[in-house]
Amino acid sequence: MSWGTELWDQFDNLEKHTQWGIDVLEKYIKFVKERTEIELSYAKQLRNLSKKYQPKKNSKEEEEYRYTSTRAFLATLNEMNDYAGQHEVISENMTSLIIGELTRYVQELKQERKSHFHDGRKAQQHIETCWKQLEASKRRFERDCKEADRAQQYFEKMDADINVTKADVEKARQQAQLRHQMAEDSKAEYSSTLQKFNSEQHDHYYTHIPNIFQKIQEMEERRIVRIGESMKTFADVDRQVIPIIGKCLDEITKAAESVDHKNDSQMVIEAFKSGFEPPGDVDFEDFTQPMKRTVSESSLSNSRGDGKYEPKFGGKSKGKLWPFIKKNKIIETLLGTKSPKQQKEPLSHRFNEFMTSKPKIHCFRSLKRGQTQSLYFHKELMKRTLGTPTCAIEAREYVLSLKLGAGPEDFSNLPPEQRRKKLQQKVDELNKDIQKEMDQRDALTKMKDVYIKNPQMGDAASVDHRLSELEQNIEKLRLEVQKFEGWLADVEGRLPARTEQARRQSGLYEAQNTSAVNSCAQDRESPDGSYTEEQSQETEMKVPATDFDDEFDDEEPLPTIGTCKALYTFEGQNEGTISVAEGEMLYVIEEDKGDGWTRIRRNEDEEGYVPTSYVEVYLDKNAKDS
After folding, report:
1. Which of 6, 27, 384, 397 could be stapled to 322 by a disulfide with Cβ–Cβ 3.0 to 4.6 Å?
2. Name one GO biological process term (predicted).
3. Which three-class secondary structure state does DSSP give residue 185?
4. What would the pLDDT profile of 493-519 be if each residue is shown by its tens digit?
5. pTM over the 0.70 mark
6. DSSP E strands: which ranges in 412-488?
7. Best CA proximity match to 43, nearest among 245, 250, 271
8. How would you class 522 by CB atoms within 10 Å of its CB: exposed for 0-12, middle for 13-18, buried for 19 or more?
């Protein structure tokens, strides 16, 4: 099967076919080029997608990636980045192995095709020239024959005419012979030209054209083979990255399998556990029995009734249901308890006061009389509502910490468990920094030894300054570690025992950060959901004893205005408070002024304040009327 023998007369069609083959090759190159552009665009979009959802450095999002589910998501993003890289590899390989190679091959193919068809046209032109020569020789031979025949006829006519002279007859005879000779010469030339043409034509159709067409056929077959190889390369380029893409997908699957819901749940506990106890049960209030209204922290001026003692069953003040206080009550508590007669101020005004006011330490006379809310009451009341202090300076620090994300160096604005974790994290970071500095110091020490042994390599004294700086840095970091370890030991000493799992439950009532926790008394939950006071291990704001004694000496004993029954045991460890036992009966000498404290007396020498929610108050009728 050869184009030279089978298609000897299809020169023009072969020319069109080979041009179509080159067009197909160029079309395939264009297809691969667009595929590479798609791969690059896809890879770019994948990288942008991965980058878009990557956690920002030094941001809150970075802390969220400690859970197994978010770590799996982060691993998926990283693998998608590698996945995008493989598509870039596909684009690069297709560009170099297919587009570049085929583009060069197309140029070579065009040149080769042009050369072959140029030779074909040249052979055609040669055979056409031979054919024209043959035709010219043939026409000349035909013309000479006709002229020789006419000259012969003219001679015979002149020879038969008796009136023609002998000279004319001889002339006609000579002319006829000349024409016959010319005809014979034309015949010989025609014969020679014909033989030559036949030889050229045979060579043309059996040698030259078959050779040229064979070369064109080989060229076309090479083109077909080349485009087939390119298609195979097209598939191989994809196939080469499939194992890596499969590995990326395997890593994503592995990351998905690493998601541990139990571990994430435990991490949520560790992240938000405060270390405080939950409140106790709320007692049943039996309204079927006649009762007197109990003084609570929400009553600023209670009406006075008769002073008879009437027992109550499970009576409880309204203030002890603080988790269920309405939103406006919480806001009022945040802004400071106001009397109903006072005009309400906007929320923004109160926050401005928090930001600009200076802390005030009230004298104990005002504390006794209930004229001003006590320092620790402000803090405790806020803890029981929003988990934040209400002292001016503490509230200001709290608002600033919310706005700026700042806090004290010892993390005292956090609940105990969270503070312990932050301190432990800080200690670990400082230890890492110390190790890094020590590694640098060791490296410089080795370098100094090398310089001492080989002075030509450098000056040993040039590293002394840096070594001294590293030593100072290490010493500073160690002091920092000691400081934070001291705070950590202090926190761990005050945390509940590790085995008491029930006491470690957190987050019900102190979900928000509180500032300056160590400036006021630590609180603990009582069985009814209220609180008792424990002596703080941190610095407390105290009033000098001399002022305290003088003020009490100046005051006359207050008259009794009623009686009360202690619902719970209260350990009065702060100045101005008194300890009571559950069920104990005492005298009321000053009712709750709205600050949540009631002043009571056991005997002439023992009196002080107790939380209103801890006692059931029965005011005398005369006291109520007055």
Report:
1. 384
2. signal transduction
3. helix
4. 765 544 333 333 333 333 333 333 333
5. no
6. none
7. 245
8. middle
